[in-house]
């Protein structure tokens, strides 16, 4: 079988989707110039193809977009699903130390690269 970078040989895909926080009664919630808090969530899905993985990630994102009442006043809000941002095939079996994602970065000065690195004491959120 020929190698295809869009196919996971182990059947796993890393997918991300974007949510934005809205107040449902906000008249400006669809203003393209307004700023909104957002989350990009990343999940693992088992799928037969890139397209099937996309569909699964889309379904998960939509399931995480239910209205609720927030804050002391019980304002109607929700994390609104916007869409899938990334689907990446995983090329190795899921195991301790398996590489599941990588990013190609533009060349940068060493001093700038070193600023990206976080010590163990800074890892907690």
From TrEMBL:
Family matches, as InterPro entries: DUF4288
Tree of life domain: Bacteria
Name of the molecule in the record: DUF4288 domain-containing protein
Source organism per UniProt: Viridibacterium curvum
């Amino acid at each position: 079988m020929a190698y295809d970078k869009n196919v996971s040989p182990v059947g796993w895909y890393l997918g991300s989707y974007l949510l934005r926080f809205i107040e449902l009664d906000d008249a400006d919630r669809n203003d393209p110039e307004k700023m909104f808090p957002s989350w990009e969530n990343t999940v693992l899905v088992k799928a037969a193809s890139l397209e099937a993985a996309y569909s699964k990630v889309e379904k998960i994102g939509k399931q995480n977009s239910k209205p609720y009442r927030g804050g002391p006043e019980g304002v109607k809000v929700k994390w609104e699903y916007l869409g899938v941002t990334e689907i990446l095939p995983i090329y190795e079996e899921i195991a301790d130390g398996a590489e599941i994602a990588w990013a190609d970065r533009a060349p940068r000065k060493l001093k700038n690269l070193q600023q990206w690195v976080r010590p163990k004491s800074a890892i907690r959120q």
